[in-house]
Amino acid sequence: MRRILGGLFVLFLVQLTASAQSISNASVSTDYNRVTVTEYASAGWSGDACDSENPLYAYSNYLFDFWWQVVGSPVNFSYNVTQTRFAPNCAHPQPDNEYTVQFSFADTSPGTRTLDMTAVFADDGSASEPQAADQVTYTVPGAVARPLYYIVSIVYDPPGNQSSNGFTDSDSNGTSTTTTQTFTTGTTTSFGYSVMGSGNEFSFGSSGGNGSSETTQETHTQGHGSSIRSLYDHIDHTLDHVYLWLNPQVTFVQTGSSSAVYNLSTVDGQPMDVLDFSVANLQNPSQIPPEKCNPHVLAGVTVPGVCNICANPSSCTAADFAPIVAADEFVSGNVTLVPNQCTSNHRYCYISSSYLDAPNPNPVSNSFTESDSNVQTQTFTDTHTYSVGFTTTEGWSVLGAFTLSLRDTTTFSWSDSQSVGSSSGTTNQAQITLSTSTPGCNSGIDIYEDTVYHTFVPVPSGPLPAGCQ
């Protein structure tokens, strides 16, 4: 584009009249976790002379683009831009093109956050012009808890000394958990998201309504070898395996005067530490292998061992793990099984029947995928609630103007809901093998589902023959 003035004169004019592009904060406010930001932007006067072909066209700079980013989060663009003043035509030294930019967003991370903003200015349509930046801070009210553990699953010992029981190689549902026991009456919580990274054995997402809140639906990802083998023909529930997540973190963000959204992650972004333990080991802690008892290195990061749960980590007792063992009702013997029925008021739901055949003369193996797809009900009529301590003596970390009242400041409660069936569009699966090397050990087997942990319990339909071990 031609200029009507000499190069030296134009440079001199620009030096005298040009002002730098800038953005500055007008206000930033939070309504619980809703953040609203208003920025002023000044495009700066270019000082260009008029175009000889179009003398009324202004060469002043204008706001070309505006983006913002909460530190550690993705970049966002703002489109709510209002021009509040227009620069006059033809090299007038003032005023500049000026703008008001306003945007709002919901933040699901509590505490004091930093927000970076960048404005891109252009002259005559060019996007390769100077930028201006601004930075503000704001605070979202919330709280962080680091419970000692979360019971991921229980896998039950099957009958038959060559049998096995566990997850399939496909995704299967796990526990549906809510945190409504966290606050006093009247507070509603919903599940936001989870931060686990890729390649984890378990994943978490929202599973829909449960009363006034959403539950966290755990998924067993591609089986991950979560299967156990039996040792005896008779069932020994001390051989049941409990899977524990040992470094969970629950973060609450206050979204209203009586509401919050929570998300799950690991402590400080550690790899997810899930270990399995037999009931026998939990009842006799001296049998727990040191690599599971003590802190250990996982993907280059030191994570806690299960002995971190104990009042004295160097000398665990059965009492330290008693609340975990209590989650397996077959160990206590307080189980009511209703043959050929699946009722909402019983935790263990009848699914189907199978068999255990004795070798005659060769070993017989009955292997199948069990599923609750034939049960067309989905219920949340009861919950299994258990309380755990914290990984630090401080308990809760309260951030900002957090006003929700905690039910208990010394322990954290998980509430696992009972559900079964496929009306929600999902089914639960397990790979079961029923086999024995003992002649004469034949039996019908009833398959029940643990409707809390969505695993399956093979149970002899009657007393095992005398020939069984």
Q: How many extended strands? A: 30
Structural class: mainly beta
Spans of 5+ residues with little confidence (pLDDT < 50)?
1-18, 51-59
In total, the number of domains comes to 2
Overview of this structure, please?
- The protein contains 5 helices and 30 strands.
- The protein has 469 residues and is mainly beta.
- It has 2 domains: 7-140, Sandwich (Immunoglobulin-like), CATH 2.60.40.10; 143-460, no CATH class.
- The strands form 8 sheets. Strands 13-19-18-9-26 form a 5-stranded mixed sheet, with no helix packed on it.
- A hairpin with a 4-residue loop joins strand 29 (443-450) and strand 30.
- The termini are far apart.
Briefly summarize what is shown.
The chain has 469 residues and is mainly β. The chain is 7% helix and 43% strand.
Question: Keyphrases for this structure?
Answer:
Immunoglobulin-like; disordered N terminus; five-stranded antiparallel sheet; 2 domains; 469 residues; five-stranded mixed sheet; mainly beta; 5 helices
Could you outline the blueprint of secondary structure elements for this entry?
Layout: H1 7-17, E1 22-31, E2 34-42, E3 62-70, E4 76-77, E5 81-85, E6 98-106, E7 111-122, E8 131-140, E9 142-145, E10 150-155, E11 164-166, E12 172-178, E13 188-195, E14 202-210, E15 213-220, E16 227-229, E17 241-245, E18 248-256, E19 259-266, E20 274-278, H2 279-283, H3 290-293, E21 296-298, E22 301-303, H4 318-325, H5 329-332, E23 348-356, E24 364-371, E25 383-388, E26 397-399, E27 412-417, E28 429-436, E29 443-450, E30 455-460
Parallel strand pairs: 13-19
Antiparallel strand pairs: 1-2, 2-6, 3-4, 3-7, 5-6, 7-8, 9-18, 9-26, 10-17, 11-16, 11-28, 12-15, 12-27, 14-15, 17-20, 18-19, 21-22, 23-29, 24-28, 25-27, 29-30
